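testing teh design pipeline on a random one, pls ignore if ur not involved
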């Protein structure tokens, strides 16, 4: 009886792993296409050459780097590849570094929005040079925060296991959880709270207008969407770390969510970048119609009438006839 139960659990785990692998592959494909599309649009469109879109491109490049490292770790996880502890430790460090560089990309994007919304009077903060410094800061802080994974020996190679810090090292796991998830989420939440409060206060005299209420609602919606995506990608991993730190085996469903939701969250965030960013969205629509004219909306155009090399608009003809009728009635 126990053998049958364990066999059923093993089969369900294998099915869950296969499903999570399919979801991860689809998420990786969607994220890769979206990142490349955003980068290409920003490069080839002169109107998108701004400091804000520089950070968007940096986030896309960081995401591509994270996806490459995740694919490497997934290959080790789903195959019986033999590695040494040192090589596994390097892979683990690259994973945490790539994860931090993506998460702190969102932090510096929030800081940039703070510059443009609240501190816009300080022109230097809006310059391209300042935003390049933000990118350098993101890389340095991600590099330093991940050093603990390669300095310590808390990552050990185990077949069919990801090269991550083992659950028995609870302090190290909580350190990574705090620096890679909790602190960025708190910083982003505080910054967006300041931005929203400033926007509400600056439009206090126009609160009754439709434009002011619509802008406030749109800003709140965008903030909630982004925070919701961040929480969706990080909460399952946080729950898995907390449960594993207690010395208990975490349920397989939590483990599957922990390895699947980050890639899904990144794919959702890239889609929302195109949808919520007005400039990128408009350029995408124009490029789509240009590249795929048969997929665009059909436009019915009225051809003008030409007489004696003169172009006559049908609308003007109708108006002239109405004016002529009115003048005749007046004479009558």
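output:
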């Amino acid at each position: 009886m126990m053998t049958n139960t364990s066999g059923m659990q093993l089969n369900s785990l294998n099915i869950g792993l296969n499903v999570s692998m399919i979801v991860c592959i689809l998420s990786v494909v969607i994220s890769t296409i979206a990142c490349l599309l955003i980068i290409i649009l920003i490069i080839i469109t002169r109107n998108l050459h701004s400091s804000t879109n520089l950070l968007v491109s940096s986030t896309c490049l960081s995401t591509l780097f994270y996806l490459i490292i995740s694919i490497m770790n997934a290959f080790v996880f789903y195959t019986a590849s033999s590695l040494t502890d040192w090589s596994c430790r390097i892979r683990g460090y690259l994973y945490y570094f790539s994860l931090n560089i993506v998460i702190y990309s969102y932090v510096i994007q929030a800081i940039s929005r703070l510059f443009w919304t609240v501190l816009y009077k300080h022109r230097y903060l809006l310059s391209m040079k300042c935003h390049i410094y933000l990118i350098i800061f993101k890389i340095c802080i991600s590099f330093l925060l991940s050093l603990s994974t390669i300095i310590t020996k808390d990552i050990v190679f185990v077949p069919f296991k990801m090269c991550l810090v083992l659950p028995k090292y609870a302090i190290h796991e909580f350190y990574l959880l705090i620096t890679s998830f909790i602190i960025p989420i708190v910083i982003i939440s505080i910054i967006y709270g300041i931005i929203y409060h400033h926007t509400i206060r600056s439009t206090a005299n126009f609160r009754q207008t439709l434009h002011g209420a619509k802008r406030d609602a749109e800003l709140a919606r965008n903030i909630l969407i982004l925070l919701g995506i961040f929480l969706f990608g990080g909460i399952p991993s946080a729950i898995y770390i907390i449960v594993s730190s207690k010395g208990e085996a975490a349920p397989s469903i939590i483990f599957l969510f922990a390895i699947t939701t980050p890639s899904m969250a990144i794919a959702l965030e890239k889609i929302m970048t195109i949808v919520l960013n007005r400039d990128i969205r408009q350029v995408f629509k124009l490029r789509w119609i240009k590249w795929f004219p048969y997929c665009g909306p059909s436009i019915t155009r009225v051809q003008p009438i030409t007489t004696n090399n003169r172009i006559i608009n049908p609308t003007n003809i109708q108006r002239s006839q109405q004016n002529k009728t009115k003048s005749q009635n007046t004479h009558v």
